[in-house]
Amino acid sequence: MSFPKNFLWGGASAANQYEGGYQDGGKGLACADLISGGTHTTSRQITSEIKEDLLYPSHEATDFYHHYKEDIALFAEAGFKAFRLSINWTRIFPKGMDQEPNEEGLAFYDQVFDECQKYGIEPVVTIAHFDVPAYLSKHYNGWASREVIDFYAIYAETIFERYQNKVKYWITFNEINTATLTIGNFLSLGLQVGETAFIEQPDDPEARYQALHHQFVASAKVVSLAREKYPHFHMGCMISYMPRYPYTCHPNDVLLAKQEENMHSKFCGDVQVTGKYPYYAKSYFEQQGININCTKEDEAILAKGTVDYYTFSYYLTLCVSADDNVEKNGHSMIGGSGVNNPYLEQTEWNAMIDPVGLRITLNDIYDRYQIPMMIVENGIGVSEDLTADGKVHDSYRIDYLQKHIAEMEKALADGVDLIGYTIWSAVDIVSASTGEMKKRYGLIFVDKYDDGTGTLARYKKDSFYWYKKLIATNGASLLEV
């Protein structure tokens, strides 16, 4: 089985981790701009205003804003067929609810998409990627307010109209299901929490799930809008998919794995693909005493605005145990039932490396939904440095990518409809989870460090050349290292 002739090979990014230029071109303040740097051992800080004694990684990131022509030329050199990026909401509407859009911001993305067209690269655009406008967080409590649905819809319609001839692949929200986790609360929903440690923010499950519901409605509204006015668009959802394995074959472990995977990895996809809340989510809310205000109008909007294709991120699998006597490490992220999988290796950030899990995931998703799929994030975060002659010999990344892409090929042979793959990440960017540069994912090294120093010069890693050959041969060179 070979990859389809029109397979969308490429790389991915996110504005809040890559774009920089946070005060340039009339851009407003986003919630991401108020989150300080950190490491995998120290917490980030969320502040209500910019403080001079803290470093905020999103402010410069790796500066796509001033390097977009150089970077897109590098993507073209690698043979990218697609480039996944996000539009920064506050670059278009600085407050998120302005009367008129910011023309300078619109013009910037015009230039980005023109560069992509110049090289025949298909943009895959995420409308909202963890960049809720700070004004909406402060004055409306972010997505907890129903009013934000219409603000988002106006923003989406503005960019649809502007870029209708330049972009056809759209994703409504990045990893929308991270809202089911307390750690994703501020990033994805923009709930106003004041100054607190990033990991220790207070949590209100009912407010969080109500805010998520508003995102579901907003997504469905703009999907329906696109279907009516821009029928050539492809509208997708995006899920952070983390499969759960039972630690043993004990029925309690099997049941727990299914329950956790349902509520974290499947719930949001079920709503966005089928257009209704699944039975298990309704049961979970009842058991937890969570009341969601879902009107009849909301139900009709959800039913009408189902997505055309399914995209997801895949980095790791999780192992869970229901046995109180088994030592837990908290990796499950829900309930702290996670256990290290003895059959898998881990990254230095303790993520389980599981290529076969990707094949399992692809089959599970396709069996469930029967719509086209795209993997829009997959990669390995590693601390690495340049050699004296400006090289990065990342054989570990090549090994990681090779094994995962081999499982994609097997999934294609299984019969799944996989249309594209964009590596996380095309270029070194700021880690969303830890706020550090040390955790590098890119095919291209950027001279930028955790203390904010660096020239921002770009250097092609060994994996860049490996991926270039893979794309040129449409996967035929997969076994070559």
From TrEMBL:
SUPFAM superfamilies: (Trans)glycosidases (SSF51445). Pfam families: Glyco_hydro_1 (PF00232). It comes from Candidatus Enterococcus mangumiae. This is 6-phospho-beta-glucosidase. PROSITE patterns: GLYCOSYL_HYDROL_F1_2. It comes from the Bacteria. InterPro entries: GH (IPR017853), GH_1_N_CS (IPR033132), Glyco_hydro_1 (IPR001360). Belongs to the glycosyl hydrolase 1 family.
